[in-house]
Each structure stands twice: as C-alpha cells, then as structure tokens.
User: Fold this.
Amino acid sequence: MEVIDYIRAGGPVMIPILLASVVGLATFLERLWALRRGRVLPAALMRELAELARQRRWGDALAACRKWDAPLARLAEVPLAYRHESRERIKSRIEEVGRREVADLERGVPILGTLSHLGTLLGLLGTVGGMILTFRVLGSSAEPDVGEMAVGISQALIATFSGLVVAIPAMIANRWLLGKVDALTVALEEASLRFLDAVLDAGVDEVPP
Assistant:
C-alpha cells in the first residue's frame, strides 16, 4: 500500500515514469541475453570451422555455419561461399555482412539512451507540476495551508527522484551495452579475418570427408 501511496503522491507524471522503467528494464535484460559472447561468438563453432578449414572440407564447413544462428556463423559463410574470389573482394563482402550484424547487435540499445533523457525530463515535468500546486496554495489566501503546500512540494521532490531513478540506470546501461557491442564487434572482425586467412591458406579445392 505504501508503494501505491508513493506513486499517487508523485502525481500523474509517475505513470509514464513507471512505464519508462519497465521498458528500460525489459530492454536491458533482452540485450543482455542477446549480447552473450557464447551466442555471438560460439567457441564450439570456431573450433569446428578451424578443423574443417584445415581439412579443406568447405561443404561441411558451410553446413556447420548454417546450423548456427550466430553472427560469427553468418560472417564465416562469406569466405566459404566466395573462396574463389580475391582476398580484398571477400573482405569487402565480410564488411558488408558485418555492418548488418553490428546493427542487429545495437538494436534496442538506443532506447536506453532515450529513456535516460526521458526520465530526467519527466522528473522535471513533475517538479514543475508540484511547484505550480504549491504556488497555487500560496496565492489562494493570506494564510496558506501548510499541509497543502507540503503536498505540492512532496509531489515535486518525488517526481524528481523517480525520474532520476529511471534516468541514471538507463544511462549507465546504455553506455555499458555500447561498450559491449564495440568489444564484440572487434572480436567478430578478428575471428572472421582469421578464418578468411585460414580458408585462403588452405586452398580452394574440396577434400572429401
């Protein structure tokens, strides 16, 4: 009951603040799950591809990539599918696919950046609403009711506090996830280029399993 009273005391602006907090938490948890290193760069796939490349079993390597729903698998398909082309052309194709994969990794992260600003602005809106209520009480009579003034001040402070409670974690989560995406992007680039070199060094002829 105290939570409900707290929300009511913050005024109408508490509703969008609560919605922003729910959206922010859901977005963070979804991205946290999606950006697991084991999902983006599965170690088992990397080992399997390295062995298949060493044996020049390109058909099996391509089939292995298509079994995995992972950014690394989609990047590794490129040097396998275009192994007869020059290194520069294959690298260019990898970069094209890589840009799409990075965009997918970043999906949803800007929402947290938006919520960090929105939480601050909603808190400020609630503060203004509370102060308007307070000054309305002050101007209503020569001897304003202290209790009614306290309601307005309380509303202003609760809204400010609640807005910052949403904004600060959202900003931290946004920065942290962007850093994680950057680290995964570098790791993906390094892994895909290593596999490209392994494919080209092994040669293009298919060796029967």
In short: The CA atoms of residues 42 and 70 lie 7 Å apart. The chain has nine helices and no strands.
